[in-house]
Design goal:
single chain; mainly beta; four-stranded antiparallel β-sheet; 56% strand; globular
Length: 116
């Protein structure tokens, strides 16, 4: 599976951005689709997760109520709608998927910068 993330940019605090991740290859084997982020000097953290088998989602406490993860019906796109952005959301965002054999794949990352 190949992943390509895009949609990052510079936005003012309180604004919104929508990240997208294009998935190609053996999409039928995809089980979990996730967004991670890594801020300067910090470890990469899981922001939002989606299980494609039952549609369940999970979010980091810091983004609950502000971010929404979703995908299309054929798992070719993964989205992260980010609203009410804060300066602490500034990071490089990565899309990630895990297949049925628990192998992980990563996109190249897209920079999100929130100015206060």
């Amino acid at each position: 599976v190949q992943l390509q993330a895009f949609g990052g940019g510079l936005v003012q605090a309180g604004g919104s951005l929508r990240l997208s991740c294009a998935a190609s290859g053996s999409r039928g084997s995809i089980v979990d689709m996730n967004w991670y982020r890594q801020a300067p000097g910090k470890q990469r953290e899981l922001v939002a997760a989606l299980n494609t088998r039952d549609g369940s989602t999970n979010y980091a406490d810091s983004v609950k109520g502000r971010f929404t993860i979703s995908t299309d019906s054929i798992k070719s796109r993964l989205y992260l709608q980010m609203n009410s952005l804060k300066s602490e959301d500034t990071a490089v965002y990565y899309c990630n998927i895990q297949d049925r054999w628990s192998k992980a794949y990563w996109g190249q990352g897209t920079q999100v910068t929130v100015s206060s």
